[in-house]
Amino acid sequence: QVQLVESGGGLVQAGGSLRLSCVASGRTSSRYTMGWFRQAPGKEREFVGAITITWSSSSTNYVDSVKGRFTISKDNVKDTVYLQMNSLKPEDTAVYYCAASMRPTYRATSYQESDFGSWGQGIQVTVSS
Length: 129
Prior knowledge:
It contains no helices and 11 strands. The protein has strands at 2-7, 10-13, 18-26, 32-39, 46-53, 58-62, 70-75, 80-85, 94-101, 118-119, 123-128. The strands form 2 sheets. Strands 2, 4, 5, 6, 9, 10 and 11 form a 7-stranded mixed sheet that branches. The chain has a 4-stranded antiparallel sheet with strand order 1-3-8-7, with no helix packed on it. The chain starts with a strand and ends with a strand.
């Protein structure tokens, strides 16, 4: 089992930036898919972006609403995946969750929650107007 812990959330003004971190521990792998989801009040949890790492490649994809503003990166030494969020908007306000699959998973567009077996506890991001 893999344990995930998010950090870096908080309150920021519209147009600002935040970087979320997700540290993995336990039965991690050098080949994996890590995803970010978010859930706004009164809404269903939605896919934000994902990174898939294999021995020879790294690929990312994002939901259209965050393309060009959010970037996912990884630090293999620290077993950490980051979600850099720039040009934040009030509609980005949500609880953000990281999720992990220790088996590389490729999707053409969006990932589903069922693609991931491990989840973090979630962290609040609030963007004020």
